[in-house]
Amino acid sequence: MSGEVLSQSEIDALLAALSTGEMSADELKKEEATKKVKVYDFKRALRFSKDQIRSLTRIHENFARLLTTFFSAQLRTYVQISVASADQLPYEEFIRSIPKMTILNVFEVPPLDGRILLEVNPNIAYAMLDRMLGGRGTSINKVDNLTEIETKIMTNLFEKAFSHLRDAWESIAEIDPILTDFEVNPQFLQMVSPNDTVVVISLNTQIADSSGMINICIPYVVLEPIIPRLSVHYWMQTQKKEREPQEVQALEKRLKRAHVPVIAELGTATITIQEFLQLGVGDVIQLDQTIHEPLVVKIGEVPKFTGQPGKMHKRLAVQILDTIKGGEDDDE
């Protein structure tokens, strides 16, 4: 028997056949014991493992969060974007699955070869356009007759949005997304051959009262050089990777060269504004601290040491006596 789920009518027919003797339980057992053969479609080759698909899903979940923040700021309205699914399928099947007239943005991602497609459902695209033009986010599907101004506004918006893919992909590759083409008819767009495998990440998108899908189509040729980095083993190695000794030495060298202000306070005093206004050359301000009390030595604005004044090689100096402990700025 196959692994398919039987309907109630099929279950009733099977029970009836067993009760009338048309089919015996032994025959069912023999059929189950036979070797099961799974049909494999060579036109729909599975070139990505489940582990790699999960890694791509995790990466684009981060991308979805970045898009949510970006569109919320740009459109000034409620925006929610999340990953709905991530599947691998032939390019031709993906093209057939999207609307006949839609918003298609084609990006190059150097230094990787190939191009990535960002397909935005017209319902979502026009809600964004309406918000950019000062509306409430109402969606009117007229994708077949976009004006030059509408096209320019959309391309600018999606080009800025897709630049966040650089941050989402930084763990597997350093890319620089560049918008190279804008199209509304998928039949005029041929990025790869029809039978080539692509990964399609579908994003559920809510803009104000409008909802729809944003699809990211990534051909196999784009991901091929970085496929080893999509494994869990690579991710675990990356997380455990420690800094190289050369990097540590370079950091220590730079820290040693860093300049920090050191301030030795001789004391403090409080005067009125009237007294301050009457100050003149030769006047003396009496400090609240005696010469026998230690000075407070500050690193920047933070009190860190106590010290006593003196001279060293005919120059004024401060000798450190003790460390000041306590306080929220003390890291000891």
Automatic annotation (TrEMBL):
Chief place where the protein resides: other
Keyword Membrane tagged: yes
SUPFAM superfamilies named among the record's database cross-references: CheC-like (SSF103039), Surface presentation of antigens (SPOA) (SSF101801)
Alphabetical GO biological process terms: bacterial-type flagellum-dependent swarming motility; positive chemotaxis
Domain annotation Flagellar motor switch protein FliN-like C-terminal: ranges: 254-324
InterPro entries per record: CheC-like_sf, Flag_FliM, FliN-like_C, SpoA-like_sf
Localization: Bacterial flagellum basal body; Cell membrane
CDD domains, per the entry: FliM
Topology within the bilayer: Peripheral membrane protein
Example of a GO MF term: cytoskeletal motor activity
Domain of life of the source: Bacteria
Pfam families registered for this protein in UniProt: FliM, FliMN_C
Keywords: Bacterial flagellum, Cell membrane, Cell projection, Chemotaxis, Cilium, Flagellar rotation, Flagellum, Membrane
Cellular component GO terms, alphabetical: bacterial-type flagellum basal body; plasma membrane
Sequence similarity: Belongs to the FliM family.
NCBIfam families hit by this protein: fliM_switch
Protein name as catalogued: Flagellar motor switch protein FliM
Organism, scientific name: Thermolongibacillus altinsuensis
